[in-house]
Amino acid sequence: MLTYRPSLSSSYADTLFPLDLDPERNAPMPHKSFHQLKYELSQISEDVIEASLKLREPSLEAIRGLQDRLIAFEKAIPFPLRCRTAYLSLPSLYPNQQDAIIDTPEINKRDLRVTLQVGFHTVERGATGVDSSNSHWQ
Hints:
Blueprint: E1 21-22, E2 27-28, H1 34-53, H2 60-75, H3 84-88, H4 97-102, H5 112-126
Antiparallel strand pairs: 1-2
Helix pairs in contact: 1-2, 1-5
């Protein structure tokens, strides 16, 4: 299983992303799956890395555009895959911690698969290099 960004740019691939099925219903997922979200986040990460490695620094508008994409991604994460700890650490999006608690599921220590998936999105999002919780960028 691929756990980090691919080393080959997605612009060189023409393969459709596989459809994830809900294991309980053997039907398409009612929301974006972990793997679809992981792929989308890797695309944002790829753009952030590309912008940060160029010889000429990107414009402030470009940086804000990347930040906006990351925030939009974060807001679109389906409820079951949201990480309460990560949302509580975003005061620019959730100044009231009670709102972050309402917008995230309880941590279920018995469902290891979902716990690891939620944790992965938190770690991978942090690796993108754009800190959307930093009020300096707001």
